Amino acid sequence: MTFKTKLLIQLALTIMFCSCNSNIESHKENEAINQEQIDHLGITNVDSLSAASKRALKWPTDLGNDWFIEFSGLQPLKGDLAYEEGVVRRDPSAMIKENGKYYVWYSKSTGKCDGFGGDVENDKVFPWDRCDIWYATSEDGETWKEEGLAVPRGKKGSYDDRSVFTVEIMKHKDKYYLCYQTVKSPYTVRVKNQVGLAWADSPDGPWAKSEKPILSPADNGVWKGEKQNRHAVIKKGDFDSHKVHDPCIIPYKDKFYLYYKGEQMGEQITFGGRQIRHGVAIADNPLGPYVKSPYNPISNSGHEICVWPYKGGIASLITTDGPEKNTIQWSPDGINFEIMSVLQSVPAHAIGLNRSADSEKDPTEILRWGLSHVYNSWNYQSIMSFTSKRKTTHLAPGE
Ligand code: AAL
Question: How far is the CA of 166 from the centre of ligand 1 (A)?
Fold first, then answer.
């Protein structure tokens, strides 16, 4: 036998061994696939699995449809929260029930906006620029009475002198806490957004305000050049290097979990849309200090924060941006979230949950009805309501 023949035989044996090995592997893999699952997924041949079938086989088998819901279209509110030309009312907080009434807080401003092309020191750049936090009450959740101003912008020179907006409410041990976004003037396209806090003994105030922000963006991105362009960066930094937004504090495991949306310097459009992710910061005391979790970001998608406690963990509705948009997720520890359902669409943005609902009754009970907002135009938004229901069958007419 020549050296060449020996080499060829050795090569053939190696190939045989490898392919036999990979047959064993795939057999082992297939053995682990249970017949019921194959039938459930309607797979024709386990030896010819498409990439999609391989993914489907990795889905959890015990989820069912408990978390699957359908949203209604949005309905206008009555009374003082009905749409009013010239006025912005948006980003409603959750509702809490106090003194026999629902309470809601929201961002309010007046007048049209000018964008970033002009005099950013004096213009109104966004509908949520030059906002204060107002509140309203209702006996039935439909007809609302605007009660007045809750938290105003700060004095000139303070971290919240330009706008206070996108507020959430937490009631804890008979005290009330409002957390909200803040901007310091001038409102440039690169301005960093922070989070402020106010607290009171009654939902009607008076509110005391934190002198400093309770949460700030990560300080590790580097802008490129001086132009007002939030996409031009030398280094993007953490997922929340530009803005910390949509704060919502939940008392959880004897601590306070502040969930928030991060916006990153140099944000890009990915295969799922805008690069938006959520983070959490944890404190021992409602007033802070809040320490960002080393596990951040805790979502890879989403927009406004919509979180609620369920079965010892935290559930989160992920909407609008990213590859996992329109999913409801749940984590056993408030940090490690998994997809529990994928929804057709979520017409309700910036959801204000009904915190008086029995959120333990059903995974999505807290979403049966609540508040949202609508763009009546780019300049003006108003608060609306939504309902949702569980969907467990899909029947043909007369079936
Ligand atoms: C919202 C929120 C934040 C943004 C803007 C106002 O729905 O995500 O609050 O800043 O849009």
Answer: 6
- Selection from 162, 103, 81, 133 nearest residue 373 by Cα: 81
Integer Cα distance of 277 and 230 in angstroms:
17
Residue that terminates a domain, selected from 30, 57, 84: 57
Closest atom of ligand 1 to 303 CA is 8
Tens digits of pLDDT across the chain (399 residues): 554 545 444 544 444 443 434 443 454 455 567 899 999 999 999 999 999 999 999 999 889 999 999 999 999 999 999 999 999 999 999 999 999 999 999 999 999 999 999 999 999 999 999 999 999 999 999 999 999 999 999 999 999 999 999 999 999 999 999 999 999 999 999 999 999 999 999 999 999 999 999 999 999 999 999 999 999 999 999 999 999 999 999 999 999 999 999 999 999 999 999 999 999 999 999 999 999 999 999 999 999 999 999 999 999 999 999 999 999 999 999 999 999 999 999 999 999 999 999 999 999 999 999 999 999 999 999 999 999 999 999 999 999
Q: How many domains does the chain have?
A: 2
* Ligand 1 nearest-atom number relative to CA 304: 8
Expressed as residue numbers, the domain containing 43 is 3-57
Q: How far is the CA of 3 from the centre of ligand 1 (A)?
A: 73
DSSP string, 116-146: SSS-TTTS--STTTT-EEEEEEESSSSEEEE
Q: Which atom of ligand 1 is nearest to the CA of 261?
A: 8
| The model's pTM | 0.92
Same domain as 12, residue 99: no
Same domain? 241 vs 377: yes
Examine the domain organization and report whether 80 and 19 are in the same domain.
no
Distance from residue 181's CA to the centre of ligand 1 (Å): 9
